[in-house]
Write a structure and sequence with these properties.
Layout: H1 2-54, E1 55-60, E2 63-69, H2 73-93, H3 99-106, H4 116-127, H5 130-137, E3 140-151, E4 157-169, E5 172-186, E6 197-206
Antiparallel strand pairs: 1-2, 3-4, 4-5, 5-6
Length: 212
């Protein structure tokens, strides 16, 4: 009888021991699985962050205009500065015979990208009825960029824009030279200027008609 009780107790003890061992293995496996998941999540987050760092966006009035993948910070600054200058000139000098369209592009977008030097030029052209003449005559002006040269050796960064205005008028095409200069300064990003750059001391150096 005692042997039977002893054997029964021994079996119960073994069952408990085996159950504890299974529980311990389950805990260890669970911890190992959680650790592996943690490592995987950390790796994925790291890759996503690295990818986000290398994705560079050019923005205008909340709209993503271009996405450029870069790894070099200096190259990113170069892309941003060139994009800012190019977009500003397109908005300011690319015109259609529609006063509403012109005001939307210049007053609603371009003037947020430049300091008061751009506002002075715009007001001067308004006083000269330049935009009204475009709207009444029914011709459009398309901007053609040749090059944007930016000097990064000193701050603020001086730039020179070289291009042409293609003028469609009465079925004929004319060209006008466009060379401008100014400086680029960093500024706080705002809803109207997400690029965080501003053109200062803007000036038109040449805007003469080109001979055919």
């Amino acid at each position: 009888m005692r042997n039977m009780e002893f054997n029964e107790g021994y079996r119960v003890f073994n069952d408990i021991t085996r159950a504890e061992k299974r529980s311990n293995r389950l805990v260890v496996l669970s911890l190992a699985f959680m650790f592996v998941c943690f490592l995987c999540c950390t790796y994925v987050v790291h890759r996503v962050n690295e990818s986000a760092k290398n994705n560079f966006y050019l923005l205008d009035s909340g709209q993503k205009l271009a996405t450029v993948r870069v790894k070099d910070y200096k190259r990113a600054i170069d892309i941003l500065c060139e994009g800012h200058v190019g977009i500003f000139h397109e908005l300011f000098f690319g015109l259609e015979p529609d006063l509403g369209f012109i005001k939307k592009n210049i007053e609603g977008k371009a003037l947020f990208m430049v300091d008061r030097s751009g506002m002075r030029l715009y007001n001067r052209l308004v006083d000269q009825d330049y935009y009204e003449d475009i709207a009444k005559s029914g011709y459009s002006i398309e901007l053609e960029k040749d090059s944007i040269i930016i000097d990064y050796s000193s701050y603020p960064f001086r730039f020179r824009f070289i291009g042409k205005q293609k003028i469609e008028r009465d079925g004929e095409t004319e060209y006008r030279n466009l060379v401008t200069t100014g400086y680029l300064m960093e500024t706080k990003s705002t809803p109207n200027n997400l690029n965080g750059l501003k053109i200062v001391r803007f000036d038109v150096l040449d805007n003469r008609d080109l001979r055919k």
